[in-house]
Amino acid sequence: MIEKTLIVLKPDALQRGVTGEIISRFEKIGLKMVAAKIVEPDEEFYYHHYENIGKMVSRRGQKAFDFTLAMMQNGPVLAIILEGVEAVKVVRKMVGTTEPKEALPGTIRGDFAHTSFAYSDSKNKGTSNLIHASGDIEDAKAEIEHWFKPEEIYDYSAVHEKHTR
Asked: Which residues are designated catalytic?
């Protein structure tokens, strides 16, 4: 099934200059970028994303939620919609586990990050893990609606689609 999913390259990805390398991984496997923009959302926008959609407080606790909101406001982010066959699961697999120290080599977090939740907690800050990826199809739909207007999403044919679809 062809799906759309959201990724957000976080402030640490932009500040480290690794966005191109991350995006190229998705393009190389045949996912198509159908929307992209650099934005600097406010706390209310992130609250909706992480709690109203993602239920982060119930999953990781208020402290982790507060650290994440603060960290996400350290600079602009690059929001992207990717489209492809089973895009949600494929992207999650490529991104790796949320805690960088547990992410396998070959995943984005495994190759570009290494910190742990415990270390970040000890420093009273959010864990720099470079990228957000929608957790499931329902989250992807809600997140895409939250981050993009319909007119910002493009439908076009890519040369490689005959090989990847």
From this structure: 132
Instruction: Give CATH superfamily name and number for 2-154.
Output: Nucleoside diphosphate kinase-like domain (3.30.70.141)
Q: Is pLDDT of 165 > 80?
A: no
């699961």: which residue's tokens? 89
pLDDT digits 0-9 by tens, 66-76:
988 999 999 99
Using one digit for the tens of pLDDT, what is the confidence trace for 6-56? 999 999 999 999 999 999 999 999 999 999 999 999 999 999 999 999 998
CA distance 55 to 34: 26
Find out whether 28 and 108 touch, Cβ atoms under 8 Å: no
Higher-confidence position of 141 and 123: 141
Q: How far is Cα 94 from Cα 120, in angstroms, rounded to an integer?
A: 23
Q: Would you call 137 exposed, middle or buried from its count of C-beta atoms within 10 A (0-12, 13-18, 19+)?
A: middle
State the amino acid at position 90 in one-letter form: V
What is the rounded CA–CA span in Å between residue 116 and residue 37? Answer: 29
> What's the distance, CA 57 to chain centroid?
18
